[in-house]
Amino acid sequence: MTRNKLLFPEDVRESLTLKFRNQHRSWLGQQGQWPLVLNLGSPTERDISTDVSLIRAWVDAWSSWRDVGFINWETRQWPRMGRQYIPRSLMLASSQEVARLVGCEKQWTVARERYDGLVAVWPILSANPVLLRRYDVLAEYGEEDFERLCSLLSWLERNPASHLYVRQVPISGLDTKWIERRTGLVIELICAIRGETSAHDFFMACGLKRPPHRIRFRVLCPDLRNLVRGLGDLEVPLSDVAQLPLAPAGAIIVENLETGLALPDLPGVVAFMKLGNAVGVLDAIPWLHGINGVYWGDIDTHGYVILNQARSAFPALRSVLMDEETLLANQKLWGEEPVQSEQTELSLLQDHERMVWGGTSWQRLGNTRKARAGTDPMGQCLRCD
Questions:
Q1: What confidence score (pLDDT) does residue 359 get?
Q2: If exposure means fewest CB atoms within 10 Å of the residue's CB, which of 47, 189, 197, 219 is most exposed?
Q3: 3-class DSSP state for residue 181?
């Protein structure tokens, strides 16, 4: 008889570890059939006569079992071997016993207590899978972090439209960074508590005031600087930028801060820096409407995505130093793009831009993808900083 026909204690623990990993979330939601019965094996008389030492080790292992669960023993009567007393199955009464056997009893106990506590306060959560998906929060959060989370949810439920800034939320020990690291979790839970579909926007979901979008820009024209008291490098809320008494003839948009800081004085020109994917907000600045503009960004997938978004605000925007000639002339500066943009349609790119963007995203004729960056010159990227 081979050993794999019999389950030893270590085999049972290994099997239960996998079962706990796959099913603990459903068990947390009171699903699953209990007791859980695991068959330990069923040796025949021939098995015993073939490898009596293996059978004896198996019986001794279960005879020494002192952990949770109930072992069902069975008496067998065989013609040659006589009466034998062998373990038949291990019965576990609850998920708690499984958790203990796989070394997760402490986390499981904490998770169950917290789950039951949250459902007692907000019964609607029992019908929503959000708590089951967030098992790590229930099981692993420290006491202080979990109390902060519950206090925040309670306050948001009572104040669905406070219109306060995050820093103004009156909860002891709660700081802005703590919330910023958990916005997805807070959105899921507060929407579930309210019986709403989970939102994508944290501030709207929580009824909090969004911090003003700040714009970093330089006034490159000396005459225009006189209109803002000589200031040349500013970072102010978007709404304030829109109110400035400026009337530039042109604008430069650069993806990187250092690039913008290195720009020289230019008559009638302002430069916007480091807007990233928020570049479309420039459309809210009335004194930019209708002026000439150029964009200089990285020659990589994200650079062309930002260019495409910038053109939604400036349809006539020209790109500079983002063509194939520039890329091929600077091979010593090539580098691989660790995480590429997943966007597949950039409708506002011009043909020569689309060709380079297609190469940097490893797309060639017929939409064929290269195996990895570096297999094609056009699968590289060039930074503009």
A1: 78
A2: 197
A3: coil
Helix (H) or strand (E) holding 84: strand 82-92
Task: Determine the Cα–Cα distance for residues 101 and 19; give it in Å rounded to an integer.
Answer: 12
Nearest of 228, 226, 215, 157 to residue 186 by alpha carbon = 157
Helix (H) or strand (E) holding 250: strand 250-254
Are residue 185 and residue 246 in the same domain, yes or no?
no
- Give the pLDDT of residue 383: 57
Identity at 259, one-letter amino acid code: T
Q: What is the pLDDT of residue 108?
A: 97
User: Using only C-alpha atoms, what is the Rg of the chain?
Assistant: 33
Question: Which domain does 166 fall in, by range?
Answer: 105-206
- Rounded to the nearest angstrom, the gap between the alpha carbon of residue 107 and the centroid of all alpha carbons in its chain is 23
Let me know if residue 19 belongs to a domain: yes
The count of C-alpha atoms lying within 13 angstroms of the C-alpha of 230, restricted to the half-sphere facing its C-beta, is: 0
> How big, in percent rounded to 5, are the helix, strand and coil portions of the chain?
50, 15, 35
Q: Is the dihedral of CA 67, 70, 71, 73 positive or negative?
A: positive
Q: Are 174 and 188 part of one and the same domain?
A: yes
Tell me the C-alpha distance between 125 and 288, whole Å.
49
- Domain end, chosen from 206, 235, 257, is at 206
Residues 93 and 161 in one domain: no
**Does residue 331 share a domain with residue 300?**
yes
| Low-confidence residues of the chain: pLDDT under 70 | 1-4, 362-385
Q: Which residue has the tokens 């789950």?
A: 115
Which one-letter DSSP state was computed for residue 227? T
What pLDDT sits at residue 348? 87
φ, ψ (nearest 5 deg) of residue 316: -95, 15
Euclidean distance between CA atoms 46 and 76, whole angstroms: 13
What is the greatest pairwise CA distance in the chain?
Answer: 110
Domain count, the chain: 3
Report the first-to-last Cα separation within the chain, whole angstroms. 70
With a CB cutoff of 8 Å and minimum separation 6, the contacts of 177 are none
Please report whether residue 90 resides in a domain: yes
**What is the spatial distance between Cα 77 and Cα 49, in angstroms, rounded to a whole number?**
14
State which amino acid sits at residue 240. D
User: Could you tell me the pTM of the whole model?
Assistant: 0.68
Q: Which residues contact 93 (CB under 8 A, 6 or more apart)?
A: 34, 35, 69, 70
The secondary structure element, H or E, covering residue 47 is: helix 45-50
